[in-house]
């Protein structure tokens, strides 16, 4: 039994580990697990929402698919099928009786090998869930360009959600601690706009919704959902290469992400973007997104998987 220190999140009863539900404070691993030493783990961040009768998981299939894509990127074979992982995620939400919150599946190279090459190390999978409210608060935030750039796609597989990659996001987050900014913003190795430490970036300019193209960023599932919502609203969407001045002179801007949801950005590097307030299109997309995750938009119900 682990003695747990105080955490900034609320614990739940059970964690799914390698096919079994274990008590939250018994969900332990060996300190010589490969993934703990080298970041050789892959994970997902998924939200589930209260839809009235039953909680519903947002974009479950897409998240599980990306988990397997990330695993493949580091040569990892998850010892369960995608269907089994989907079922396990549903089980963990159901058993914990939480109405809305966050789900964290984590597959990692486990104890058994200490050399860097992970071939031969066993692979474990754990899935936890807990109630989790707004990540960045919802009100327009201030972002600061990081002195760290987003990971280079030729050094790492930039669109895979590998634990080790997140040291990049941790450094950027630590770096802005002393500033007044709420969140960091990465440029890529070409000096183009990339994304936040855990969010994709959008901005509106002259009636077009722009977002940095794939290459150096995570292919966000919320990003895809936002682009679909915008297209359904007949708002032209462009994926491109942009510089900081494009964002500085935008009419409105926001981050998207599972944790952050739709997060308006009011300030870039100490200066207001337009009037610094939540823009009209941002507000519209935010409202539709929050309705969609709550099961209130018939055309987007296909994005939800009911838990009961
Ligand atoms: C680096 C990074 N970019 C973007 C996102 C947003 O992705 P998603 O919308 O799939 O949560 C995340 C969150 O997973 C992330 O970690």
What is the gist of this entry?
The chain has helices at residues 34-38, 60-73, 82-96, 166-175, 221-232, 244-248, 280-293, and strands spanning 14-17, 20-23, 41-43, 46-50, 55-58, 101-109, 123-130, 141-145, 183-187, 193-195, 200-205, 208-212, 237-240, 252-257, 261-268, 271-272, 304-306. The protein is α+β, with helices and mostly antiparallel strands and 308 residues long.
Fold topology:
Blueprint: E1 14-17, E2 20-23, H1 34-38, E3 41-43, E4 46-50, E5 55-58, H2 60-73, H3 82-96, E6 101-109, E7 123-130, E8 141-145, H4 166-175, E9 183-187, E10 193-195, E11 200-205, E12 208-212, H5 221-232, E13 237-240, H6 244-248, E14 252-257, E15 261-268, E16 271-272, H7 280-293, E17 304-306
Parallel strand pairs: 8-9, 8-15, 12-13
Antiparallel strand pairs: 1-2, 1-7, 3-6, 4-5, 4-6, 5-17, 6-7, 9-10, 11-12, 11-14, 14-15, 15-16
């Amino acid at each position: 039994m682990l003695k747990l220190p105080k955490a900034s999140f609320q614990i739940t009863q059970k964690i799914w580990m390698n096919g079994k539900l274990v008590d939250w404070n018994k969900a332990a691993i060996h300190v010589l697990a490969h993934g703990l030493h080298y970041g050789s783990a892959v994970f997902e961040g998924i939200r589930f929402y209260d839809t009235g009768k039953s909680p519903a998981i947002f974009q479950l299939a897409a998240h599980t698919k990306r988990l397997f894509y990330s695993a493949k990127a580091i040569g990892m074979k998850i010892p369960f099928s995608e269907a089994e992982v989907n079922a396990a995620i549903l089980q963990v939400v159901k058993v914990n009786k939480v109405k809305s919150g966050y789900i964290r599946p984590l597959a990692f190279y486990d104890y058994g090998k200490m050399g860097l090459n992970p071939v031969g190390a066993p692979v474990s999978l754990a899935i936890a869930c807990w109630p989790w409210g707004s990540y960045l608060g919802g009100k327009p935030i201030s972002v600061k360009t990081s002195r760290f750039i987003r990971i280079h796609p030729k050094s790492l597989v930039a669109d895979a959600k590998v634990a080790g990659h997140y040291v990049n996001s941790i450094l950027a987050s630590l770096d802005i601690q002393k500033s007044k900014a709420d969140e960091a913003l990465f440029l890529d190795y070409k000096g183009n706009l990339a994304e936040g430490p855990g969010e994709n970036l959008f901005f509106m300019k002259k009636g077009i919704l722009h977002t940095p193209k794939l290459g150096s960023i995570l292919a966000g599932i919320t990003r895809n959902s936002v682009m679909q919502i915008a297209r359904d609203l007949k708002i032209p969407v462009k994926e491109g290469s942009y510089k900081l001045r494009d964002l500085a002179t935008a009419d409105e801007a926001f981050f998207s992400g599972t944790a952050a949801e739709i997060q308006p950005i009011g300030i870039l590097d100490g200066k207001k973007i337009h009037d610094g307030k939540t823009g009209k299109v941002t507000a519209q997309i935010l409202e539709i997104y929050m309705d969609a995750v709550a099961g209130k938009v018939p055309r987007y119900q296909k994005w939800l998987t009911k838990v009961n």
